[in-house]
Specification:
about 160 residues, alpha+beta, three-stranded mixed β-sheet, 10 strands, copper ion binding, Cytochrome aa3 subunit 2
């Protein structure tokens, strides 16, 4: 079967582009050491229950209006499931996963992170309005994914 010379040219350009993108991906991953966002800290995902601070997840007061929330995502929930902080507080979330990739999202805020097993994901947010906020997993994590949620109560 004979191809037209322009077909051959476009085929070579397409294959060349794919090879170039693949080489760029390999270079950025290994040579430059790219990691997942905020994934600089790592832990053994099989020993989350024995690794501080994830061995005692909860809400910890750091200063007058600053809290650290240590969360563990697992199929199909968050530990702790209910968090309570006062209005105006800056909350520093520290999250990891015990099993599979999960999401960590609080709708109506800018809190949205991917939680990978073996990686510690950190994000912060200042809650200026009182109310009850939903914590959702926004990455499909299995058959019970639609049930995976928690609550954050911002009190007066």
């Amino acid at each position: 079967m004979e191809m037209h010379r322009y077909e051959k040219l476009w085929l070579m350009i397409g294959v060349g582009t794919l090879v170039a993108f693949f080489l760029l991906l390999v270079y950025s991953q290994y040579a430059m050491g790219f990691m997942p966002a905020d994934g600089h800290a790592t832990i053994d995902s099989t020993k989350v229950d024995q690794t501080p601070p994830f061995n005692q997840p909860g809400v910890f007061k750091k200063s007058d209006k600053e809290y650290e929330v240590v969360l563990v995502a697992l199929a199909f929930g968050f530990t702790p499931n209910v968090i309570e902080v006062p209005v105006g507080s800056t909350v520093h979330f520290k999250v990891t996963s015990k099993d599979v990739v999960h999401g960590f999202e609080i709708p109506m805020t800018r809190v949205n992170a991917m939680v990978l097993p073996g990686h510690v994901t950190e994000t912060s947010y200042t809650f200026k309005k009182p109310g009850e906020y939903l914590i959702l997993c926004n990455e499909y994590c299995g058959v019970g994914h639609h049930m995976m949620m928690g609550k954050l109560r911002v009190t007066e």
